[in-house]
Every structure is written in structure tokens, then in C-alpha cells.
Amino acid sequence: MARKTYKPSETVDFVVVGSGASGGVMARELSRAGHSVVCMEQGPRMAPEDFEHDELKYRNLSGITNNPVANPQTFRSDPNKKAERLPGRNALTYARIVGGSSAHFNANFWRLHEIDFIEGSRWGSIEGASLVDWPITYAELEPYYTKVEWEVGVSGLAGASPFDPWRSKPYPMPPLPVKSSGVLFEKGARKLGLHPFPAPMAINSMFYKGRPACAQCGLCGGFGCEVMAKSSSVWTMIPEAEATGRCEVRSESYVFRIGMNAQGRATGVHYFDRDKVEHFQNARAVVVCANGSETPRLLLNSATNSQPEGLANSSGKVGRYLMFNKGGGSMARFEHPLNEYKGANVTRILHDFYDSDAKRGFYGGGGFDARSGGPLTWGQNVPDGTPSWGPGFKDYLASYTYWMNCSGHGTSLAQETNRVDLDPELKDAWGIPAMRVTYKDHPDDIKHANWLVDRSMEIMDAAGAIQIEPSEVGPASGGVHLLGTCRMGNDPATSVIDKYHRTHDVKNLFLCDGSSMVTSGRGQPTQTIEALSFRAADYINRFAKAGEI
Amino acid sequence: MDQNSPSRRQFMAAVGNLASVSWVTLYWPQIAQAAEQAEHAGHDHHMGGAPVPAPAGFTTLTPAEAADVDAIANQIVPGGDLPGARDAKVVHFIDNSLGSFWAEQLPSFRKGLAAFQAAWKSGGSPAAFAAAPDEQQIAFLRQVDHTAFFLAVRRLTVLGLIAWPKYGGNFENLGWKLLGVEDNHVWTPPFGYYDVDYPGFKPYPGTKPYTTEGAV
Which residue in A460, A371, A540 sits closest to A32, CA to CA? Predict the structure, then answer.
């Protein structure tokens, strides 16, 4: 079937900016409801055969991610200092292709727990942080978590963890087969009285919704899935949106400004095509799903005379409260080969430490997983005390198949000074102001990450590791989980969007992605982002039907 | 996933000193072009043993430069029972990368190599570094293994050992052979030693795992 296309001069019902985890869901749900939709994507569209297991290209040469040369950023940890470019990399990384970061994620799909939505009330004030309740609860989001699992495709074992939040349905697919890292992780954790369980993964463990089971190639994180078993938007939501005949996915189309009229309504988006020619796509409403870094950047770059501090920024909160997921873990060597380069990256996790515990003396909670990494990335570093060249280094390289990672993923506290805004000097390859990132860990985040390191070493020791190498917990200078920068809330003075993802300031402008999150969760935010998108689309469709947009 | 390990940071900082521009550049069209260049490079390299002929077939480095870089890489990951950097033709990866996707690094790399060679000569060695016995090479490298140039060669050596062969190194997958990695895109369990006899997931007391088929 020929894909639907629209002329920029046509006024479509919705422009969705971004085609990733949130944008894909949004485009499908709006077009299925009968609306005309143009989904804009900065990067190119890749076919299954375009994805390779090329670790150099994908991990070292920005093969599918934002590029430090074309899409540069500056970074600083002190808001009073000038931000500078980091050598050789950007602070904030995301995939720049149709499917967005859902195309290259590891596919860990953790639901938030009930506690994530009410930690402000539970903990009260934390010095230097803005820990507040979400304007919605787990109960309000649960139906949409279930929808993600069944519509997008998630494998797992419902009810296996005593710490799981309640759920209305099981996973549609059984867990993926366990690998050696999962077996060892489970062995060590059970020995300590913990409760490891099969990892919920957005990867097919069986033929599901027209896509095959995982080929167990071993390269998930950072890579696209050439067999389409990974439930990325590019293989799931995007084709289903296009199948409505009402949605155009316009790749290599870089939206840099939202158009506004004198009445304070969004009129469409300004964008560059692949030849850097500027266009304007007319739309009755705009939904920005561009990720937690590009969404605030787009709003700030869309300032008008009546909204000089950036669009939808009367609160001054656009770009603020940037969060990652601070973590810590260890790498462990065992007596026999694990061959972690085979099989889906993660097969076992645990959530025993999910909730914060005041007895620890700091705020923070997290989860652990057993995971692998590609050989090229692994081989570039050596543990302390291991020779970095010569026969000893060669011996270390030859031990690659004997290692695994026990990784802790945890909370990052929202802080008003941690933010994304526009660099006053640096421009990208299109002449648009680059994003400036300001970030400094909250002291509790550091303490919690170190605490995770200690727990991971205990688990690996109990598993029988013959060598354990802790990761060092240092100051964050970037991340891939880009959260909190246009937080939702009931009060227009302290938040950017309401509980239905509508901006407080512009009636026909909605935002939905990691930027909407009020707290960071414990890592693995993608399922929450997709659940939020299903929920937001549900309400946007209701508003449209009622003539309230 | 929010920061690098200390060794990584240390290493990147050292590489950053080699040049202010990035080692992470360009787009995949240039990468594809680089791969094509590599496939046309000479692949008649010696496969281990002595004496070692000068490497040939380079498009970026001079023969003398390539010989020294090859010798350094050979000490970083020496040959032996398992393949080393020379067996995997890492120097061809370095030649190819500095002529394509990391071409901006070439002037700094050359400057670093010239300083390396000058330091070698200042020690009274009449011949090139590449022509010296292993013991002399190792002794000298121990004096300079903290320098930005050495760390850059080290990084490139590891990349050239493990990156896809189309980039010029990892000849006949010998780098992967060293690591114990088989070149295959599809696997079935068991994957490793420890999952061979996994008895299956046992539910915890008080839990009732269930699937679409019902209780587990």
C-alpha cells in the first residue's frame, strides 16, 4: 500500500514531532481515531537490512545517534560557569532515526511502581531537590501499561516478583530464554535471600503481531534489530499508524520551531528537509514527542514576542529538572565461559531494593539486572591493576567470554538547576542554537549509587565470581535517559503540562515523552513513556471529539 | 549508563589532549566509504613469525610511519598462540581510519608519531623503532605509555582488533578469535557454561506467577 503523504500547505489535524517511543504511539493512536497526522522525524528511515552488528559505527561513530559534530552540545556542572563542548561526545545521547531511541534501546520494560508517583508525600522535602508527587497515580496509568505490553509486545512472567505492582493482565509472551549471566545473577541473589525474576523485555520471545522471535544475536543496546523482534516503534507503532492511510511519517525532517499566531495558538511547525530547505507544515494542533532534551530545546527556540522566554514557559520550568537514572554496579569474572555476546542483553532482574529506605540515611531506590556488553566496547577499558598493554593485556582480552555485568539502576533527584537550555553561542549544522546542558548530581544520588555498587558486589560474590570489579561512581556528565524537563503538574506556576499533557499556556500544544516525568523512576523509563503516550493520546482524542482543542 | 569508568575517562582525556577535535565524527556515508577504501588496501601482510617484513598497501601513512605504528600495536597486543594485533592487521585499520572518518586526527597523530620517533632516536638508537628487538621496544614503550600518542595508538589498536574486518583490521576475524567470539548472527540456548543445566524459574513463596496459559 502506498504510504499517505501530505503537502506542507495542507492543514493536517496533528503534527507529531518525533517518531520514537512516544511519537510512534501518539501517531498511531491519533490516526486510528480518524485524524490526519504528519509525524516528523529528524533522522532517516532505516529498513531491517540497514541495521548491522557494526559496533564501531554504532558505538563510536554516531552511526544512528545525535552527532557531536552536526548536533553539538555544551555541558557544565556549575550554572555559574561557561558551558563547553565535551571532548569527543555529547552529554545527552538519543537515536536520530525513525523509531527514535526505541530503535536502539536494550528493551528493558519496567513499569513504575505505585510508590514512584507519591514519593513527594512519602519523603517530604529533600534539601536541594524538588521531589513532588505526580498529578496521576499508578492506578490511572495501569491500563496503559497493559496496553503497551499487548499492543507493542513485551515478554515476561507476571507475578514472579513479590515487589511487582499489581497488574490487570499477564504479559502476552513468556520470558526470553535465560543466559549464563541470568543464571549466575539468580544464583547469587537467591543465596542472599533476594528475589530475582525473569526480565520483562520489549523483545518477542515468540512470533507475535506479525514479527518473529528474537534471534538471540546478542547486540541489542545501541543497535537496531534487523529481525524486527525488538518491539521498537519503527517495527510496531509506525507501520500501524501508516496502515490507517491517514498518517505520514516524514523522515529527515528537522523541526526547529513551532509556529504561533496572534491568538496564541500553534499553527504548525517550521522544519528543514534533508537538503536543509526550510518548510512549514500547517496543523490544527501540535504534539511534541521529541525526547527529554529536544522537546525543551524546541520550546525554547520557539519564543515569540508574547512568550519571550520560550513557548509554554510562563512557569520558567521548561528544560529544568533534568534527570537521568544514576546507577552503579560491578563487572565479574567466572571460572567458565558465559559467552555474553550471545542472547538478549538482559534475562534476569531484581527489585528488592526498589523502594527508598530512610534507614540507609539517604533517598534513593533501584533495581538490578544481569547484562552483557559488546566486545569492542568492553575491550577498551581494563580493571584497575590489569596491564593496559602487553601480554597481560592480551590475556585480559582473551578472557572476554568469562565476564558479566551486574548493573544497578536507580533514582536521580529532580533539581531546578539541572537543565537543558539554549547555548548562547554554539549553533548546530542547521544554524539552530545548540542545547546547553547543566547537570550536577544530588548528594543522595551519589550515595545511593555507591550503595548499589556494594550490593552488586555482594550478589556477584554470592554467585561465585572469581574476580569482581566495582564501577566507580563519579559525577554525571550526561546520560541516555532524558527525563523531567517539561514536568507535568496541576499548578501552572510549577509545571509545564497538565495531567493530560496539554501545555498550561497553549491550548493546542501537547508534550509527551521523558520530559513529562515528574520523578525519574529506577531506570528503564521507556515503558512508562509509552504508557503515558497511550494515555495522552486517549485524552487528546477525547478533547478533539469534544471540540476542546 | 550515565558516566564512564575512571580508566575510560582517563583514556578519553588523554586522547582529547592529542587534538581538540573529536574522535567521534562524521556520518555513515563516510564510514561506508572508509570501509570501501579498506577493502582495496593491501592484504598481503605477514601472518606471524620472524623476520617481519615491512607492512605494505597503505593509503594514509608512509611505509616508515606504518612500520613503527605496526610495531607499537604489536607490543600492545603481541602475537603468540592466540592472534595479536599484527596478525589481525590492526595497522591497516589505523591507516584507514586516519584517512577517512578520523582524518581530522591525522595531523595530530603524525605530530605525536614524529615526537615518538624523535624520542626514540634521542636514546641513541640508530635504527627505526620498528627494527629494534622486542626487549628494546618494550623498554622504551614503558617510558612513554602515559603519553597521549601512545594511548591513541592503544585505543586504535583495540578498535582495529575488534571492529568489523571491513574497516581494515580484525583480519579473518582473528581479533574475535582472540576474544573467543564466534561470528554468527543467530544463537540458540544454551549460550554458555552456566545456563546448560538451568532447572527453570522456581516461584517464591506467596507469589503466583502466571502467563496467558494460566498459573506457572
Answer: A540
The 3-state DSSP class for residue A211 equals: strand
CA pair distance A422, A272, nearest whole angstrom? 19
ipTM attached to this prediction: 0.94
Cα(B38)–Cα(A497) distance, rounded to whole angstroms? 52
The string of pLDDT tens digits covering residues A475-513 is 999 999 999 999 999 999 999 999 999 999 999 999 999
Calpha distance B163→A486 (Å, rounded): 39
**Which positions 85-104 of B are in contact with A (Cβ < 8 Å)?**
101
Do the Cβ atoms of A135 and A141 come closer than 8 Å?
no
Q: Are B187 and A216 spatial neighbours (Cβ–Cβ below 8 Å)?
A: yes
Name B205's Cβ contacts closer than 8 Å, sequence gap at least 6.
Answer: none
Do the Cβ atoms of A338 and B22 come within 8 Å?
A: no
What is each CA distance from A123 to A104, A110, A117, B99, B131, in whole angstroms?
35, 23, 12, 56, 68
Give the model's confidence band at B18: pLDDT under 50 very low, under 70 low, under 90 confident, else very high: very low
User: With an 8 Å Cβ cutoff, is A314 touching chain B?
Assistant: no
Nearest to A339 among B8, B191, B209 (CB): B191
Q: Helices in A292-374 by DSSP H: which ranges?
A: 294-300
User: What's the distance, Cα to Cα, between the start and end of chain A in Å?
Assistant: 32
Are the CB atoms for B93 and B175 separated by under 8 Å?
no
Return d(Cα A539, Cα B197) in angstroms, integer: 49
- β-partners of residue A219 are none
Give the span between the Cα atoms of A124 and A278, in whole angstroms.
48
Interface membership of B29 toward A (CB under 8 Å): no
Give the closest-approach CA distance of B166 to chain A in angstroms: 10
The answer to whether B176 and B183 are in contact (CB under 8 A) is yes
Residues B130 and B68: beta-carbon distance below 8 Å: yes
Alpha carbon distance, N-terminus to C-terminus of chain B? 34
- Interface mutation vs chain B, best among A184, A322, A326, A394, most B CBs within 10 Å: A394
pLDDT digits (tens, 9 = 90+) for A346-397: 999 999 999 999 999 999 999 999 998 889 988 888 999 999 999 999 999 9
Q: Which grid coordinates are listed for A423?
A: 547555548
Q: What is the DSSP string of A507-537?
A: TTEEE-SGGG-SS-BTB--HHHHHHHHHHHH
Q: What is the crossing angle of helices B90-98 and B28-40, to 10°?
A: 130
Query: What pTM was estimated for this model as a whole?
Result: 0.94
DSSP-assigned letter for residue B41: S
Which residues of chain A lie closer than 8 angstroms to B3, CB-CB? 474-478
Residue A308 burial by CB count (10 A; 0-12/13-18/19+): exposed, middle or buried?
exposed
For the residues B94-102, what does the mean pLDDT come to?
A: 94
Give all strands of the β-sheet with A467-470 in edge-to-edge order.
A197-198, A346-350, A366-371, A403-410, A327-333, A467-470
C-alpha cell at A241: 499508524
By C-alpha distance, which of A81, A29, A247, A376 is closest to B88? Answer: A376
CA distance B50 to chain A (A): 18
Q: Could you tell me the three cell numbers for A289?
A: 514527542
> Which one-letter amino acid corresponds to residue A40?
M
